[in-house]
């Protein structure tokens, strides 16, 4: 009996040890967000507070290295490894706003600035040299001519930043990097240096110098330049080859950038999948909220998860979400068969086969069986999926639209033809001669191939075509609204050039993402909302150089109300694709009227979204509280320069309240002009606003009524005084 008891006791101890080991190993990285700094507490004391909290949750499991990072400069929080159960207990502690996993994010111009009216000769102010744009990205390649400091004076006196393991200059005045767990790939540079190209591209689009005769191996040739070439750049590297762009690192970058004293924050990263996350459970929401509190506007890419509706994951109202539009620049790649037939495809093909013909083969017929592949996989031409002996020296027909990284060099093939039904409005650059062709033409080429034993083809170097007839439109990959979290606010906010953009690059990173690609370039052509975002960041910096004391909401308003309306015919998703329209930076510098929003206004909005007094006091560390009458209707009074109304009934009536501030002519009278479909009735009361001074505010109401269950109905309100036209988009929609 004693032996049995000992055996049972031993088994129980083993189970407990195994369970404890499992719990430790099951820990994942979490971010604990605690709002603003506690009143009366020195920020240097915050790490001690974080250790105390960790000890309470982890108990005997606590070790000093359990806390991976403390946020203490601009807001309060820390990064720690926890189990799900420990994370839940941490979330229940006093003064904790949220606890959420350290989700991974991903990285999301000669012609583009001219396309939106920003010529090299536009009016600029001397204050542009004092504007500092913080770029949260993959770093920066400092040797690029785009970042030379020739002609620059010392940094602005307000600057508090520094450079870590990086030689800055008078142009690049700040450079920091964040990899909290020290998880690096062999190719990573443990410094702010960019080894992926992306950060150099976005930073030079914002504030790159004028660099003549720039091109990608002859394509898009011209003068590469940023929107505010005299501005300064502070780079915050959060993106790495091995781990992507984690949320913890991103939040650390916000913490530093805000404290360093940047004027605008630009971030072109996004979640790796479509996930709807509550406010203050992502680095983007938290960081941009605290930036807003310090007078800093955050411009953020709207994600590359389109074209489905509600594919946007950047939807907080204090952030500026940017969609990607075309600029009329296309790259067309011709394919000629041995029988003389010519087909037109799409790609950026820098290779010249000099009209040489190569045998054709279908990828599904040549699987790499030695490594376990069959035709169901090889037909898509993924890396190593085809037999290298059977594709060498041949042009391969591939099903689908595999990205350059998934294809590589296609096991040494001479070229590749991709065919699929996918929309191909943003071309890729591959490591071998490639053309993406329509499925119909793909089938014709395949029929030709199987009809002749010696079928051949060649792929020509791409032709550049600048056709504005169907431009601009929102590219298919750009994420769409409506706002999945708060349906009665419009997202995205704006559109900007994001397709076929030439900008600076890191010469150590291949343009096809294939390591064997030997083409090293200083400038590269890229597409993405990542490329659209820096255009708006630069436009915001341009506006701020004229109006240094404007709030983030005023700058955002100026950009939105002066945007060029886009065509719903070319964009069936209308405002859910392009927001207020395509940016017009020149007009934005002098908008006439602006819609301002304070932190207190956002607090009222959050009350309507269900936040309690206790949650708000933790978030703001002041006496913020919700009134007894705080309701869901608060969203209709948030002073946004756009109006969105979701309805799920056939008869509706809704009142929006707005206030505008006069920043145009001291004495002026604006009349309301409404353009709307006959299915809805929109009234503005009063319909005339008269001003007698700069800074004067006037309020009005917009009543939207209808007897219809709409799909998407677009309308607009324009306040017009004969000099300024201040336009707000209006969208009424049902279940889409």
TrEMBL record:
<feature type="domain" description="Inhibitor I9">
    <location>
        <begin position="29"/>
        <end position="107"/>
    </location>
</feature>
<keyword id="KW-0732">Signal</keyword>
<dbReference type="InterPro" id="IPR036852">
    <property type="entry name" value="Peptidase_S8/S53_dom_sf"/>
</dbReference>
<dbReference type="GO" id="GO:0004252">
    <property type="term" value="F:serine-type endopeptidase activity"/>
</dbReference>
<dbReference type="InterPro" id="IPR045051">
    <property type="entry name" value="SBT"/>
</dbReference>
<keyword id="KW-0378">Hydrolase</keyword>
<feature type="active site" description="Charge relay system">
    <location>
        <position position="137"/>
    </location>
</feature>
<dbReference type="InterPro" id="IPR000209">
    <property type="entry name" value="Peptidase_S8/S53_dom"/>
</dbReference>
<dbReference type="InterPro" id="IPR023828">
    <property type="entry name" value="Peptidase_S8_Ser-AS"/>
</dbReference>
<feature type="active site" description="Charge relay system">
    <location>
        <position position="530"/>
    </location>
</feature>
<dbReference type="GO" id="GO:0009609">
    <property type="term" value="P:response to symbiotic bacterium"/>
</dbReference>
<dbReference type="InterPro" id="IPR010259">
    <property type="entry name" value="S8pro/Inhibitor_I9"/>
</dbReference>
<comment type="similarity">
    <text>Belongs to the peptidase S8 family.</text>
</comment>
<dbReference type="InterPro" id="IPR037045">
    <property type="entry name" value="S8pro/Inhibitor_I9_sf"/>
</dbReference>
<feature type="domain" description="Subtilisin-like protease fibronectin type-III">
    <location>
        <begin position="637"/>
        <end position="732"/>
    </location>
</feature>
<dbReference type="InterPro" id="IPR015500">
    <property type="entry name" value="Peptidase_S8_subtilisin-rel"/>
</dbReference>
<dbReference type="InterPro" id="IPR034197">
    <property type="entry name" value="Peptidases_S8_3"/>
</dbReference>
<keyword id="KW-0964">Secreted</keyword>
<feature type="domain" description="Peptidase S8/S53">
    <location>
        <begin position="129"/>
        <end position="581"/>
    </location>
</feature>
<dbReference type="Pfam" id="PF00082">
    <property type="entry name" value="Peptidase_S8"/>
</dbReference>
<dbReference type="Pfam" id="PF17766">
    <property type="entry name" value="fn3_6"/>
</dbReference>
<dbReference type="Pfam" id="PF05922">
    <property type="entry name" value="Inhibitor_I9"/>
</dbReference>
<feature type="active site" description="Charge relay system">
    <location>
        <position position="198"/>
    </location>
</feature>
<dbReference type="InterPro" id="IPR041469">
    <property type="entry name" value="Subtilisin-like_FN3"/>
</dbReference>
<keyword id="KW-0720">Serine protease</keyword>
<dbReference type="GO" id="GO:0009610">
    <property type="term" value="P:response to symbiotic fungus"/>
</dbReference>
<dbReference type="GO" id="GO:0006508">
    <property type="term" value="P:proteolysis"/>
</dbReference>
<feature type="signal peptide">
    <location>
        <begin position="1"/>
        <end position="23"/>
    </location>
</feature>
<protein>
    <recommendedName>
        <fullName>Cucumisin</fullName>
    </recommendedName>
</protein>
<keyword id="KW-0645">Protease</keyword>
<dbReference type="GO" id="GO:0005576">
    <property type="term" value="C:extracellular region"/>
</dbReference>
